[in-house]
Specification:
2 copies of one chain form a homodimer. By secondary structure, the first copy, chain A, is an alpha/beta fold. Chain A has 2 domains: 134 residues, Aspartate Aminotransferase, domain 1 (Alpha-Beta Complex), CATH 3.90.1150; 246 residues, Aspartate Aminotransferase, domain 2 (3-Layer(aba) Sandwich), CATH 3.40.640.10. Helix content of chain A is 43%, strand content 13%. In chain A, the strands form 3 sheets. The first copy, chain A, has a 7-stranded mixed beta sheet with strand order 2-8-7-6-5-3-4, with helices on both faces. The first copy, chain A, has a 3-stranded antiparallel beta sheet with strand order 9-12-11. A two-stranded parallel sheet of chain A has the order 1-10. In chain A, β3, α6 and β4 form a beta-alpha-beta unit. In chain A, α2 crosses α10 and α4 packs parallel to α10. Chains A and B meet through α1, α2, α3, α5 and α6 of A and α1, α2, α3, α5 and α6 of B. Chains A, B: It holds the Pfam family Aminotran_1_2. Chains A, B: Its EC number is 2.6.1.-.
Amino acid sequence: MISNKMKEHVSKSSIIRAMFEEGKRLASIYGEENVFDFSLGNPNVEPPEAIKKAVNEIISEESPNMVHGYMSNSGYEDVRAKIAENINKKYNLKLTENNLVMTCGAAGGLNIIFKTLLNPRDEVITFSPFFGEYENYVDNFGGKLVIVPSDTETFEPDLNALEQSINAKTKAIIINSPNNPTGIIYSEKLIKDLSQLLDKKQEQLGTSIYLISDEPYREIAYDGVKVPYILNYYRNSIVGYSYSKSLSLPGERIGYVVCSSDMDDFKDVMPALNVANRILGFVNAPSLFQRVIAKCLDSSVDMNIYKKNRDLLYNHLVKIGFSCVKPEGAFYLFPKSLIADDVEFAKEAKKFNLLIVPGSSFKCPGHFRLSYCISYDKIEKSLDSFDKLAKKYL
Amino acid sequence: MISNKMKEHVSKSSIIRAMFEEGKRLASIYGEENVFDFSLGNPNVEPPEAIKKAVNEIISEESPNMVHGYMSNSGYEDVRAKIAENINKKYNLKLTENNLVMTCGAAGGLNIIFKTLLNPRDEVITFSPFFGEYENYVDNFGGKLVIVPSDTETFEPDLNALEQSINAKTKAIIINSPNNPTGIIYSEKLIKDLSQLLDKKQEQLGTSIYLISDEPYREIAYDGVKVPYILNYYRNSIVGYSYSKSLSLPGERIGYVVCSSDMDDFKDVMPALNVANRILGFVNAPSLFQRVIAKCLDSSVDMNIYKKNRDLLYNHLVKIGFSCVKPEGAFYLFPKSLIADDVEFAKEAKKFNLLIVPGSSFKCPGHFRLSYCISYDKIEKSLDSFDKLAKKYL
């Protein structure tokens, strides 16, 4: 008696659950220390000490009815003002609290954005490989996700293919940089070219095309690579941000949506985001953690831990013959699988106690994703298994 | 460029915003202490001291990666087990962690329930007056809310009218007791009769009809009145619970959904609720507060504060000529307005600095709602304004 759509969703997600169960089964046979789980994006780096301090301060000093009570569906005004100020400082903008809505993480943010923008059958374009939930989020509101494949040698979006895919029903483009699953970062040139293309298409079609940037990995960028901020380049820009990774708080569901003041229908979009937060049942982003992050805006986890993991794993895999675009950010590697059938390859990997996610899950077969947000020691210990796996094919 | 549906939602909610702005305007003219805002359901009673203690313990003793990290989309297993045990103790049931999904408050809970159950055009029945968001929550998933009016002399649901409204498209009935906006509590006899009716209709139609109980006010019951637990009476029962009121934590968005093990398709419903939590963007109920409430299951705010408020306000209004069903729970009064046009009546009330919500907002014109979750002193001070308002009409 569950809905037809949910039947599909449940059967798809049972595959992931099966992998999880398989991991537990392997751990029970070989011992947890001998199973190498590269399948989850759950940050292993501890939140900065500032979080604990902020929680303690707020709980002991502020009024509990204020800290745990309702506020505007958009979030506390003072929290939004502080975040706006922090963004302005970093990216030379002039945002205020009125540009922001606090959200239950980036997932909550993307859902209120799509609820706000999409009429049934409107189209949202993304580039493969991509985070599979985009398809669900767009579908929640009757929209259609249109997938434009990227060049798999660089994972740069193919702007010519994008141009062909834009039509009068195109309501938004969603990008994700630093990227899950590839770890690549979109260059300033790319963002400029993309913005120019969207401007041109808007004019041609007489429509508004929103550029949505999903940014849970913004702070995880290595080697000094800059992540361009789309509000500096494109008028119809919306950023969905999350503190899940930058502060290692994924369970707390805290993030925000920020819109450019220059966007089309800004005066309609902001109250609609506020109302969408309410009627989708989020009501507001969790209150204590709104106040906590406002005290930790200049803190972040130690990104060097992730960088060392990347270097260790990337260098080793390339050395033993894997082909992989070197990631500049996030905590994922997306190498080519050593046989075309990536699902089969993931099964083979399991024989060496390696849990990996087939590229098909990101609509990019022939690859696999490794989440290296696990301990350095564990990665070191896993290298032998990768050697054995590679030896079967190379 | 926002969606057509959101245009409607925004214009409706701008009425509420206008009231809020009007309250601020009045406060700036007459002073905040002279404006009597009975419009909001924001608990004014402080959370119990146990909350602070629990936060401090968890933050200082437990691993931050566990406390703030991802867990199952259904919530921490140990938290769900503790809640199940607590429910079992109170209502003599045999629930386990597998009967529960932790949710972002009751609002999040109702949304994952409807996402799980509803195909487009499925019908959900409720009784007026009712919490207006039900219409939005059902509409989020293409369902249709069917409204069965209650007898306005008692606000008891009319089961004959309900029977007429049930058809093959009826997927669920949603009830709310203690009730917003009337404050009434459904008796055991009513729940038994309702269950019997639903059993009969299920058999006649060969369908499953789920009974959903929205229970943010369960603990707010006065004079020893019992609130029957529907899992004890009806097989296809789902309860959406929230700690927003019982622990004064509405901003933290913490609650759960609990399903009867005997329900139809229990084995499909539970994983579907889990997946719905994920794909609607909630992902999981906020992690720290899952752990906090698990330590506070036997705590609650001091309900006597609300009872004193009820007695003061109810007794006075009845004395000066208002007609009102005496509420046995929640923190609302729902008297008849002194003229048929409740919107006009609310405007008149504003002239005496009384902010009240017209019954039309709950699909029950000719009445108005007073939220008495404000301070006793403030209520005392407001009585003079009610006297003046009544004098205009009586």
